[in-house]
Structures are given as structure tokens and as C-alpha cells.
Amino acid sequence: MSAPESRFGRFKKGIKRTWPLHMLILPAFILIILFNYVPMFGLVIAFQDYKPWLGIMNSEWVGLTHFRNLFLFEDSVNVIWNTLIISVLKISFGVSVPVIFALLLNEIRNIGLKRSVQTLVYLPHFLSWVILGGILIDVLSINGGLVNRVITSVFGIEPIFFLGTGSWFRTTLVVSDIWKEFGFSAIVYLAAIAGINPSLYEAAEVDGASRMKQILNITLPGMLPIIIVVGTLQLGNILNAGFDQVFNLYNPLVYREGDIIDTFVYRNALLEGNFSFATAIGLFKSVISFGMVVFSYRLAYKYANYRVW
Amino acid sequence: MNYKKGIIRSSIVIMALSLFVGCGNGSGNNNQASNGSTNAPSESVDKEAEKQPITITTARPIGSDVIFVDGEDITNNVHNKWAKETLGIDIKDLWTTADNTAYHTKLRLALSTNEELPDVFIVQDRSLVSDLIASGKVMDISEAYEKYATERMKGLYGEFSEALNQLKTEDGLYGLPIFTSGDGTNPVLWVRQDWLDTLNLEAPKTIEDFEKVMDAFTNGDPDGNGKKDTIGFAFSARENFSNWMSDASFIFGAYSGQAIPGSWTEIDGKLKLGSVQPEMKQGLAKMKEWASKGYLDAESPILDPIKATESFIQGRAGMIAAPSWSEGWPLNGLYSTNDKAKIDVYPLPVGPDGKSARFMNTLNENKVVVFNKNFKDMDRFFEYFDKIYDVVYETGDFQYGYFEGYDYALVNGEPEYDSKKFPTPIEKGPTPAKYSLFWHTPDIPLKGSAIANKLHNGATPTTVGEKKAATQNEVTLKAGSINYDLRESNSPTAFLGAPTKTMRSKGESLDKMVLETYARIVFTDKSIEDFDTLVKDWYSKGGQEIEDEVNAWYDSVK
To answer: Residue B26: pLDDT band by 50, 70, 90 thresholds?
Structure first.
């Protein structure tokens, strides 16, 4: 390119103006390179039989053995299946519930009530699953736990062993996770709603649209870009079904329904310091996640004309 | 304004440069270079100081439980001074960390980055120990042990020689276990004495009695509140049926006399996994019966060992199997919910043929001392080791404790251990035991419960150890005494080696299968006959290889 003003020339001019901004971001940039990109080279141990005292340079290469082994485990299919089911449930409810909640909250006129409800509802997000796990075991207990007491007195049925019955465990996982997160997730959607041009509502009212029609035709479409972003990011998480939560809640009675990839790898890698195997699984999950993210962006572009770049 | 722009720009530059402040010697945990030099000690206190002065490097975690007096720290303290003056040993810490986990992580890093390891150091992580041995960086001390270990040390390690298996390979011995009290996590039976009294019952001696007592506790309304809200026995089935707290191993041990779930035991000269032995089926059948009759908490599989104690503490369960010190914690929580409750302790119920077996951890809680391959002063180490054991044997300079004015003081010729009662009282007593190379005073296994046994049976305390033990409350002494009486039933796992090849690839799935089957048989409608399928599956899906590998290891260290 031999334009009179070369690209480099323009670059130099731009830098003169914006160098403070570049300096501002420099520390974060260095940190990300150092701690997120450079360690990626360590991924090679997924293809080795890594022994800590030999280091990366001297450990034996085993190619795709670990990846093959993942599928040779008896429980592998079961574990992957559990992960997918739990993940899909969490993603679908994890997006729809906060959206509906945001819409409902938006309809409340009393600002005080609106604020206090919102605050109360996003507090559980900050609890760790270690604490919440202990609380849930008590609350869902079949020996006088709060939930079962209500169930037996109101519905007159036997107490339900939520955490110990295979058929209830996944439901318990999903419901408790949504309960914990929906308030915090709704914040983003509330912000999106607030950003919608009020004159659209006025025009709709003039045209005789009911409140419901307004929500469906103005609010929801206005939130759509945000919903798509969040949904896309969540799809990238499809193989993470929530290690913290499952680890703190699962138990021998529900291994079959509740064991996910991460808890499986945790046990197998912890037992013998099998770093290579754990890394291989991590790499496998990342590749799939990457694929899912690209896939969902393509979908978003095709159907919602949504571009991220 | 122009100068405003300048301020903004310079503050941005400063912020960017502040990134580098963190580099360099930021953390105070790195490289505590010792002030002491490696020159000869200043005075010859006795003949021993005329030895060549040497340096021993080590590393350790320093938690909040390590307490120093003013002016002392880990490099500069009464213990290191003593070592230098009496033994000519200058102890240097290459590095320290704030806790045990960080310490082991740092050791692993040192191993993988080929950093120089300390001369003498403790490891409390079995897979790290086996990695260290496999790496060839720790010394084979079999010769040094033969040559330099003192008579009483050889006697001690001879008596508990199984503990050495953790560090043995075909080629040699790669370290020494550091003993603890040994049976500190062995279960004894804790019972609501007030419930026994209300229902006019004796404490259970056999499994049959045990069943009757559980029935009475579940159906006899022992707390007298008119509600059917009590059960017989609390235990944890979340990670294992044999646990250090909230244990159920003795129920299986009552039928086998030896094997318990989760442990490897020697049967007819070979090591076998307790979980798949035929007698376990009887234990499972009994537990299944009890669960269906409501004697057990159906939530046991979701409760971990600590959470399972809540049932006893909240007054729901009448019995629990827990260590001998449990009345001090956590079972004392019961008193705050119910100040009329009485807790008493009894031996574990035995089986129909009088058999019994119970859970036991390793004698050293997996704590071992290993040595850098290049360490040249093993003779001096064994000298030091023997001197430290003076505290335990109550001989030599350390007959009362470590150092006067630190962990004890002489008041009218008698040792006093409460630092607040010293001639110069100290609020928070320093802990010189924790300055040593071993992080704490090593112990003689089972000594504690032997003392409790003596005292409980009426002896007057004479030795220092006995006097200290006499300060415990009555029920804890009784529990310790029972702990000693039950020592024949101890069933620690005999497999102390690194995880074998098949254990690494299939071991975890097999463990999961066993635990799942056990929990399902007892608490759901899975049939007891599925136990036989479990055994078959265990052997065919990798268990046979594991058993062969374990026995190969056993033969190599026998």
C-alpha cells in the first residue's frame, strides 16, 4: 500500500494521541499474556506421561492415549451424558428464568419494593457452594428439613429424599443453582430493559397495544441482543455442569445421575497425581467449548443478524 | 488545562509501573537466610560440641499454632541454639510456608523444577513420597540406619516395623516414619447414658445386644417427649463405611474378625481388600435390616464424617463410633442443646463368635522424614533424633519437657506446664516442640492409651506423661483405656505403597462401584445378593490385577 499517508504513519499519529490509554491497559495486558497465554504451552503434557521430576522436556510422549482412555472408562459415557443433561437444563432455565423475572420486576411501579426485591434476590450469588451445600443438606433433609415439613403438612405425602434419590437429584441441582443465580443474572437483563427507548412504548400505547403485547413486541426484542450474548457464552460452558455444586452435593446414592466430567476427573486425577490425564480432559473440554461458541455465533449471525465483530 | 493532562499522563505511567513493584522479594516467605554462620560454636559445652560443626537444611510450614517468645523466630530460637551448642548442628530453613498444603505444593514444584531439595525434611503426602523415591533424589538410609540408629530407636522401629513399609522398595529404605499416638482415630462406642438409664438397659456387648439397644432407642421414646424422633446409631457412608469419625467398620469386623471395608488385610499370607471379602455380606445384611427398621439414618450416605455427628449432637441418635477424645469435641456439642444429657463410652460390640475388627489409620498419619541424596551427616541426624526422643522417654536433658521457661517451668522442684503459672507467667506459652526438624514431638504409638489404661484402672501418676494425662476428664480417660483394651482389633491397611499401575487407571472406578453398591444395598431396595455380583465384577474389572500388584509389593517389602 503506497498511500501518501502510510498505515504506519497513521498508526504513529494515533499513538501520539492515545498512548495514555495504552499505558493504562498495559499492566492487564501483560498479566493476561503471562498467566493466560504463556501457560497454554503446558498443554503439551496432555500428550505425555508427565512425571513431575522429569519435567516437560523429559517426560515420555504418549500421543492420544489419554483421550482414548477417557472413552474406555466404564463410566465415561454415563458421566458425559450426565454433564450434557445437567448443563442443557441449567442453560435453558438459567437464561429463561432471569429473563422472565426481569420482565416481571420491570412491571412493578413501587421503586422501593423493586429495589429491595432485587437486592434480596441476588444475594445468594455470593454464597459459596461449600456453605450452601451444608445448608441445603439441612433444608432438604428428610428428618425435619424445612422443605419436607412443608410438603408433608400441605400435601400430605411422604418426605422426598431430594439429595439421595436418583430421579430427584438432577432436579435439585438445577433448581438450587437457578435459585442461587437468577437474581444476579437478571441484573444484566434489567439493564437492557432500561436501555429501551421509552417513546417506543408510547407509540405502542397510542396504537392500542395492551401491556402484554408491549412486552412481547418491544421489551423482548429490545433484550434480544443481550440474551443472545449471554446464551452464546453459556453454550461455551456446556461441558461445565458446575463442579463446585455437584462436588458438595453428590453422594454414593446418586453417582449414576450426578457424576459429571469434572468430578470424575477430580477423583481420577487426585488419586495418583495423574496430571496428564486431567490436562487431556481439560483440553478436550476446551476444544468442544470453543467449537460451541463459534457455532452459536454463526447461529446468532444467521438468524438474529447479530455480529460481535 | 494543559497541566491537568500532564498529571493524568504521569499517573497512568505510575500505575503501569506499579505492576513491577510486586516482583522481586515481595513475599516474606521466601528464602529466610539464616543469620547463623557455619563457623564453629563459640563454646564447648560438653564433649559433644567438639564435633565438627555442620549445617542441616530443612523446610517447613509455620502455622498460627507455632508460637515464639519475643525476639525469637524460626531461625533464631532456643531449639536451634541448643542444637548448635550441644550437637554442633546449625539448622537452616531453606524456605517456609504458611500452611501444610502450600508446603507440599512448594515441595512438588521444587521436585519438578529440579530445585535443590533440603537435607532433611518431612513429607505428609503419600503420592509425593513415592514420587520422591522414584525420582532418585532421596537417600536410601538402610545402611545409615543400621550403623547409626541408637538401640532404643531400633527397638521402637522394630516393634512397629510395618510402618516402614511405606518407605521401602526392593532396593532399600528411603526414610523413616514419624510416629504419632497411633490410635488417635480408632473408634470406640459413645452412648447416651441417660437414654440407657431411662430405658433400664445395659450397654451393648455383642451385635445382638447392639440391635436390641438400637430398637429401644428408636421405638422406646428415650427422650421422653412423646414423639418418634430418635434413632439408634449415627454413622457416615459418604466416602467410606470405615471412617475416622462416625465409623461403621466394627459392624463388618464383628463377622470377619479381621477384614473391614476399605482396608487391605493379610489373609492366608496374601493381602486382600476387605470390601470384597465374603464376611462383609453378613455385615451388609444386618445393616440392611436395621435400615429398614428405622434404626439408622437414611441420610447417612449424604453425610460426611463430621456432618454425621450432628445427629448425635442434636439428640437424635443414641450411639456413635468415634475416637477416644471425642467427648471433648465434637460430642460435647450435645451439652449445649441438652444440659441433662449424659455421655458414656464403651467397647465396640463383638460378633457372634466374639470377633471384632475396627478402623485404624497409619501409625504415623502418613508423616515421614526423608533425606536428600547428597546429605552426608546421617550419624549426626540419628544423634539429634535420639535426643529429641528424650522428651518422649523422659530421659536426659528433656525429662520434663524441652526447655525450661518455654514449655515448662520448675515450681518447687515440680514441672509446671501451664504457662500462666510459670514463675514469670506467659500469656501464650511458646511451643518449642514445633521448632524441631519434626514439626512436633514424635510419639511412641499406643503409649497415650496405655497410660490412660493404667490411670483408669487406678494407678497413681508417677511419670511426667502420666501426670499430664491425669488432667483429662474421667470419660476421656475411660475412652483412652478402652482404646488400649481394644488394640487387638485394630485393622490398619497393610498396603502402604504408592498406587499401583492398575490402581491408577481403574482403582477409582472400582472404589466408586463398591461404595455405590454398599450404600444402595443398605438404604434402597437393592438386593443383598447383589453383593456377590459386586465381588465378581470387582475382580473381573481390574480388581484381580490390583490384588496381584499389591501382593507383588508386599512380597518386595516383607
So the answer is: very low
Q: Which residues pair with B125 in a beta bridge?
A: none
Whole-number Å distance between alpha carbons of B372 and B148: 17
Residue B518 Cα, gap to closest chain A Cα (Å): 9
Grouping H, G, I as helix, E, B as strand and the rest as coil, residue B346 is strand
Q: Is the pLDDT of residue B261 over 70?
A: yes
Could A252 and B518 be called an inter-chain contact, meaning their C-beta atoms sit closer than 8 Å? yes
Task: Report whether B448 contacts B466 (CB < 8 A).
Answer: no
Contact A56, A44 (CB under 8 A): yes
Q: State whether A268 and B508 contact (CB < 8 Å).
A: yes
Cβ A137 vs Cβ B303: under 8 Å: yes
Q: How far apart are CA B452 and CA B394, in angstroms?
A: 17
CA of A123 vs chain B CAs: smallest distance (Å): 25
Residue of B nearest to A144 (CA): B229
Q: Spell out a b/e string for B223-241, using b for 16 or more CB atoms within 10 Å of the CB, else e.
A: beeeeeebbbbbbbbbebb
pLDDT in tens, A272-291: 667 888 888 888 888 988 89
Using a CB-CB distance cutoff of 8 angstroms, which residues of chain B are in contact with residue A76?
none
Nearest residue of B to residue A254 by CA position? B516
Compare B9 and A144 and report the one with higher pLDDT: A144
Does residue B43 surpass a pLDDT of 50?
no
Q: Which residues contact B176 (CB under 8 A, 6 or more apart)?
A: B141, B145, B157, B164, B167, B368, B369
CA distance B86 to chain A (A): 37
Chain A contact set for B8 (CB, 8 A)? 20
Condensed to tens digits (0 to 9), the pLDDT of residues A43-59 reads 888 898 887 767 777 78
